[in-house]
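Data availability (excerpt). The following record was deposited with the supplementary files.
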Amino acid sequence: MVVEEHAADVSEVEQHLAAVEATYAPLIIGDNSRLEGGVKLWDQFTDAVASYRKGGTTFAAVYERINELAIARLLLIDQSLAGCRILYEPEIAADDSRIDFVVSGVECGNHYIEVKTVRPTAEDSEQNWRKYEKRREHHPASVKYIVARGAMGAAIYNNSFSARSKFMEYVRDFEPKLAAANGVQPGRGVLVFCGSGMEWHRSELEDFADFYRTRQHRQDDPFAAMEAEALRSGSKPLQGNIAAFGFLKRHMDDTIGEKWTPDVRGPACFR
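Predicted structure:
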């Protein structure tokens, strides 16, 4: 029975990969593709698939590459960018740092777009439950982050905490690359976060995006105090040069994504 279920899973994955290839190959490497550097992006996807099939990597690596393909598609079908050049990982600055997508020919200068997948995998363990109990002591008094021990509470909370940490980590990574690119050709930086909507919710990115934009944490942000303390305790100040945070919600078996938000912002209340 286990063998039959595994075979069914493999078959579903292969069907999904076939759908991905049919959807994206014409856009990325087709004769009429507008994506400069599309061959490099496609090779990275096919390399990830080959490694997965050989057991060298998990499907998570393939999932990340499909997210990049999905963002490429959104740029290529955007009619407002019809007259623009769209490049994948072009050479920009002298330090050879690369940004995933660069759109040139727009009125405000280049668009610099970095794509990151955030997919935490916290276990529903006793150790993680103790982490939740310890960390909730540092939540603002006005915020109650309530999860149940018997209902995956440890995994839910620690996935949220890990996702928030990843947002900051990827911001730290993107800011200097964006600064170097702006030194060559000024433009607008966008950091896109991709997720399934299960491990973390868009509202969690809203909290972080509002903080980054205003330098003030929202009153309903459970991680406000911990993040503020981390920034006070010797961390390098944020440059603040990222103009927007995008969000692509895409389940593992979805081809193009369920929901695309190009500029995530929280609700006006509780700021």
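Summary of structural features: Residues 218 and 271 are 5 Å apart (CA to CA).
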